[in-house]
Amino acid sequence: MALDDDIALLARVPLFASLGGEPVRLLAFSSETRELRAGDILFKEGQAADSGYVVVEGSLTLANSAGLTDRHATRGALLGEIALIVETLRPATATAREPCTVLRIPRTLFRRVLSEFPDAALRLHEDFREKMRATTADLNRVGRLFGPDDRR
Prior knowledge:
- By secondary structure, the chain is an alpha+beta fold.
- The chain has five helices and ten strands, in the order αααββββββββββαα.
- A hairpin with a 7-residue loop joins β5 and β6 (71-73).
- The radius of gyration is 17 Å and the shape is globular.
- The chain starts with a helix and ends in a 7-residue tail after the last helix.
């Protein structure tokens, strides 16, 4: 896949969309391309997560020991968004359903981009703040569905 195609794909990923042109270009240029065969495991549940992956071609299935199954990641999906920001563990195993191509974006690269482009980092911060507000509002709505007697 050509660099311009990778840039266009990353620019459509919600997390990267607000970064702007040059930061996305640097991510695309510096990311690592991985090819997977059907059945290959990209990562396993419980592994330390030091990168995010964007699906370029093909699809992956996500499953975990808590019963998550039949979740599929296809072109443009970002796996490991939180791993780009902080140390965490993989919450699921990602297995290629068919031949796949993914872009691996290491946390160190993402942090470098944010440090080199402080305006992009600020936009990303604002996006996360809005996501947190929306999540908090959703949790409050769910909490109101259950009375104080139902909370444990």
